[in-house]
Write a structure and sequence with these properties.
The protein is an alpha+beta fold and 242 residues long. Helix content is 54%, strand content 20%. The chain contains ten helices and eight strands. The strands form two sheets. Strands 2, 3, 4, 5, 6 and 7 form a six-stranded antiparallel beta sheet that branches. The chain has a two-stranded antiparallel ribbon with strand order 1-8. A hairpin with a 2-residue loop joins strand 5 and strand 6.
């Protein structure tokens, strides 16, 4: 990163300009990455606002839409923007023909058919957003009961994990056990202590512990429990005569 900033500095001739340019490019890259990450979410919202017919025929478009149609002799036909003798017209596609061709007709004169290349014409669409999909989805199943069951399972499991982990940590702080030092590595212990807002005296003792002044693994576990508010008293932290 420093080399890149130095390269920009050699181009612009100013350290501040190079830093500004480097931060600007970094911000643009992060913004581009954020946009890419949001694409699946955008398509998920778009899909939720389409009807089943749109999902089958026009699933790859981001904006919900449906083909514009016109009724001719009791039947509905899709409308296209076609070019006839250099003039743009709205005509209905009556039927497809071999070789990528199709027959089009003016809705006002449906008996006059014109054969044109289908891939050279533009289908006409209109916005078609189905907000009613959401209340229909909520009423299609007991949604709030499912939501309540999910919350109960999640929070009960979380509480059980925290409670059992606290008991295990308290046990490690009171009793010696094989390989207990491996269970509390120095980086993780110091991180959790600082994260819990431990006092400076605790952190000072913690540093001395891992530097070797206090070698007891029981003391190490006690610091962890105290910093995580698991111990009722702090006497273990300071009484190292044992």
């Amino acid at each position: 990163m420093k080399r890149i900033a130095g390269f920009f500095g050699s181009i612009t001739g100013s350290i501040k300009a190079s830093e500004f340019l480097f931060k600007g490019i970094t911000t643009l890259l992060l913004a581009a990455g954020a946009v890419i990450i949001m694409i699946p979410l955008a398509f998920m919202v778009s899909t939720s606002l389409k009807d089943p017919g749109q999902l089958r025929s026009d699933a790859n478009t981001l904006i919900p839409r449906k083909p514009q149609t016109v009724e001719i002799n009791g039947e509905k036909f899709n409308l296209y923007q076609v070019i006839v003798d250099g003039v743009s017209l709205e005509m209905a596609m009556i039927k497809k023909a071999p070789g990528g061709m199709a027959f089009f007709a003016d809705p006002a004169r449906p008996d006059e058919l014109i054969e044109l290349k289908l891939n050279e014409q533009t289908a006409l669409y209109s916005f078609d957003i189905h907000w009613e999909n959401y209340p229909e989805a909520l009423n299609a199943m007991p949604f709030f009961r499912y939501l309540g069951n999910t919350l109960i399972v999640t929070f009960v499991g979380m509480f059980g994990m925290l409670f059992s982990s606290s008991l295990v940590a308290y046990g490690f702080s009171r009793f010696r056990a094989p390989l207990v030092e491996c269970a509390f590595p120095p980086p993780a212990l110091h991180y959790y202590a600082a994260l819990a807002g431990a006092p400076d005296s605790h952190l000072h003792f913690l540093s001395k512990t891992w530097l070797g002044e206090y070698a007891s693994a029981v003391d190490r576990a006690a610091v962890l429990c105290e910093c995580l508010r698991c111990l009722p008293a702090s006497s273990i932290l300071y009484d190292h005569s044992a």
